[in-house]
Amino acid sequence: MKIETKCIHSGSVANSITGGINTPIDPSSAFEYLDREETVYPRYFNTLNQKVLVRKISELEGAEDGLVFSSGMAAVSSVLLTFLKSGDHAVLQDEIYGGSHAFVDMFFDRLGISYTFVGNKPEAVEAAIRPETRLVFVESPTNPLLSIMDIAAVARVAREKGCISVADNTFASPILQNPIELGIDIVVHSGTKYLGGHSDLSCGAAVTTAELTSRIRKTALNFGGNLNPLTCYLLERSLKTLAVRVRQQTANAFRIAKFLKNTPRFEKIFYPGLPDHPGHSIAREQMRGFGAMLSFEWFDPDRPVDHFMKKLKLIKPAVSLGGVESMICDPARTSHSKISAQLRAKQGISDNLLRLSVGIEDVDDLMEDIRQASEG
Ligand SMILES: Cc1ncc(COP(=O)(O)O)c(C=O)c1O
Questions:
Q1: pLDDT digits (tens, 9 = 90+) for 29-79
Q2: Atom of ligand 1 nearest to the CA of 202
Q3: Measuring from atom 16 of ligand 1, which residue has the nearest CA?
Q4: What band does 343 get if pLDDT is binned at 50, 70 and 90?
Q5: How far apart are the CA of 349 and the centre of ligand 1, in A?
Q6: For residues 142 and 355, what is the distance between their CA atoms, to the nearest angstrom?
Q7: CB of residue 170 inside a 6 A radius of ligand 1
Q8: What is the 74 CA–ligand 1 centroid distance (Å)?
Q9: Half-sphere CA count of 207, side-chain side, radius 13 A
């Protein structure tokens, strides 16, 4: 099956009682257990709606199995703490999502896990690996600077050194990139973003082999970040339109990136689809489209970023991404406020950096909105 068909059909089950063609929502949190093969319980990640969703996301990512969580951070933290224990070492890309970075900063020292943050090159990952390194964690494109990591090269290095490799595929979505096909062991998502796509739910996913899934499940059921049946159903429904949404968003973003390049008051446009982006050629190889996220610096000595954001009529200043509606935020005050100002400066996240999540509105309307707000 092609990916568009998988979005619609993978995993979904018809209602055998009524003949309804959609997966029924099973709200039970208590299940009969006598003479059953498995004890079903929401926190064991094995209810009908969780399983249906996992099947769909696994097939979209080319994974065998996985778990769906109540947030992206529940997925990230459960994966990290499954494979790392006191005495181990991890190598992580320093441009990973601010929340993932903050989680490492907050917990690894106290758990006795050592770690090294590295730049966006596989050689840097390789150089940081030590005999006690157990896990490598990357993200591509990164939030918010859209840096590109060569995923296949990282996966190769990790495998050669006997480390588990994890890739956060939130920004690309499975429509544009499949890290498992590039050799990565585990893919994590904030499903709150493109998978959900309507800015109305919070969830996460981790998909991988059956064996690694059963190891993650053993940890995760103690943390308790399981997803409820109603949200499972909403996400299953959203995934049916994932391919058409992401394709339209990507086409719009490409036009907007080129438009911003030629519009006064916008500087340093970060978009992997632009030929002068440092990760352009790797993105071209490992992605099936350059995505719908871009960032840029607002440059007007007389007017702060808020002035521009408040003048926008369509694009919403809001803290999330991946929805059908275009959204903008300044990462220094939002997604990356939990990391230090020094680290932001080191990474290149300036106070006038704006991150735009492009929606599926008419692209001319979006460009007109940006034009009028920048001149207003
Ligand atoms: C790339 C990436 N990974 C993980 C997360 C965390 O996801 P959630 O907010 O659903 O916990 C986010 C949230 O913005 C993200 O952008």
A1: 999 999 999 999 999 999 999 999 999 999 999 999 999 999 999 999 999
A2: 10
A3: 97
A4: confident
A5: 17
A6: 11
A7: yes
A8: 10
A9: 28
Residue-averaged pLDDT of the chain: 96
Phi, psi for residue 31 in degrees, rounded to 5: -130, 140
pLDDT at 264: 86
State how beta strands 89-93 and 114-118 pair.
parallel
Residue 9 CB neighbours (<10 A)? 12
337: pLDDT strictly greater than 90 = no
Give pLDDT tens digits for 101-145. Answer: 999 999 999 999 999 999 999 999 999 999 999 999 999 999 999
CA–CA distance, 61 with 56 (Å, rounded to integer): 9
Tokens representing residue 141 in the block? 């494109």
What pLDDT shows up at residue 152? Answer: 98
**Sequential DSSP letters for 68-80:** EESSHHHHHHHHH
Count, in order, helices (H) and strands (E) of the chain. 14, 12
Find the DSSP H helices in the chain: 3-9, 48-61, 72-83, 98-111, 122-128, 151-160, 173-176, 210-223, 229-239, 242-261, 280-286, 305-311, 341-347, 363-375
Residue ranges and CATH numbers for the domains of the chain are 3-239 (3.40.640.10), 243-375 (3.90.1150.10)
- Give the span between the Cα atoms of 105 and 86, in whole angstroms: 15
Residue 12 CA to ligand 1 center (angstroms) comes to 25
Q: Which amino acid is at 177?
A: Q
Q: Please tell me the distance from the alpha carbon of residue 229 to that of residue 13, in angstroms, as a whole number.
A: 14
Ligand 1: nearest atom to the Cα of 73: 11
How many angstroms separate the CA atoms of 298 and 352, rounded? Answer: 6
114 lines ligand 1 (CB under 6 A): no
